[in-house]
Amino acid sequence: MSLRKIVHIDMDAFYASVEQRDDPSLRGRPVVVAWRGLRSVVCAASYEARRFGVRSAMAAVHAERLCPGAVFIPPDFVRYRAASKLARDIFKRHTDLIEPLSLDEAYLDVTENKTGLSTATRVARTIRKQIWEELHLTASAGVAPNKFLAKIASDWRKPNGLFVIQPEDIETFLPPLPVMRLPGVGAVTGKRLELLGVKTVGDLRQLGPAMLEEQFGRHGMRLFELAHGVDHSPVVSDRPTQSISAEDTFERDLLLDETEPVIRRLADKVWAASRKDPRTARTVVLKLKTAEFSILTRSYTPAFPPGSCDELAAIALSLRDRVALDETQRFRLVGVGLSNFRESEISAQPILFE
């Protein structure tokens, strides 16, 4: 198999950078993109705020304690999506093989690029230059022979950096890395690996495939491949939506019986969003987060998919009845979702009469 040329583009502190670009008074100041409130979380933080320890997904009240002088800006996703689309338009000048991961990052397969540039590094350098000149935003880029390595590379010289991992460099680059840099190695897997004496990717290599498969099943083989820089996953453009969901965090914790109005409102949002997809969602999902931050999910796949917003809400409410917790338990968040999308059976039916 010939080597791919993959570029991973990651916009730097994207939401906060858009705010600083559009309001010059914010430049050089610690900016936190978040709604104010006890239950709000940080959507993004400028690098000035990150120096104080502020991070995405952190509670906004904690961010305020870490950085009392931060400027809090409520998120404006309309502007962020517009900036993301303009960046995507720049990517399309170079390749049609684009796999967005979110509004602020994407994989590009530039094994064959549309602009005739001789190397993937030149493509990445050109894209970063165009983003700066046209959007007045910075982006970091990683270049490597596969997606896994390209994503690691893009983080190597953030912000506003470019890093290249050549195929011949993999054997010296990977072994010293902390094993937590591998995708799929979170706190739980990391702790199990630590008990096996594994702290670096090099340590992981020493365990061998048989030991890893015994300890972690199929995921163990994936870890073994990643430890050797192997990732065959292609860049998939226009990946179909896997799920549609909406959730809400309450100002005060609610009892389960008090969540019905929220569930109905979220069902209305999800149903409206699902109408834009020609496929049919078969599975309804209810998500709950307790006051103690435990997450519960319940799902149901009926014989026939929900045919209306009211039916979706009714199924979501029935899932709520399957939560067997003490009636005094309180919840801080609820979410409703649709998943398991299939091609519409109606459109697939043959025409019998005209």
Q: Topology of this structure?
A:
Layout: E1 6-11, H1 14-22, E2 31-33, E3 44-45, H2 47-50, H3 60-66, E4 71-73, H4 77-92, E5 98-102, E6 105-109, H5 120-135, E7 139-144, H6 147-154, E8 162-164, H7 170-173, H8 187-195, H9 201-216, H10 218-227, E9 243-255, H11 260-274, E10 280-290, E11 295-300, H12 309-320, E12 330-342, H13 345-348
Parallel strand pairs: 2-4, 7-8
Antiparallel strand pairs: 1-6, 1-7, 2-3, 5-6, 9-12, 10-11, 10-12
Helix pairs in contact: 4-5, 9-10, 11-12
Write a structural description.
With 354 residues, the protein is an alpha+beta fold. The protein folds into 4 domains: 6-13 and 78-169, Alpha-Beta Plaits (2-Layer Sandwich), CATH 3.30.70.270; 18-75, MutS, DNA mismatch repair protein, domain I, CATH 3.40.1170.60; 174-227, Orthogonal Bundle (DNA polymerase, domain 1), CATH 1.10.150.20; 243-347, DNA polymerase, Y-family, little finger domain (Dna Ligase, domain 1). 37% of the residues lie in helices and 21% in strands. The chain contains 13 helices and 12 strands. The chain has helices spanning 14-22, 47-50, 60-66, 77-92, 120-135, 147-154, 170-173, 187-195, 201-216, 218-227, 260-274, 309-320, 345-348; strands at 6-11, 31-33, 44-45, 71-73, 98-102, 105-109, 139-144, 162-164, 243-255, 280-290, 295-300, 330-342. The strands form 3 sheets. Strands 5-6-1-7-8 form a 5-stranded mixed beta sheet. Helix 9 (201-216) packs antiparallel against helix 10. The longest helix is centred in the first third of the chain and has 16 residues, at 77-92. The protein is globular.
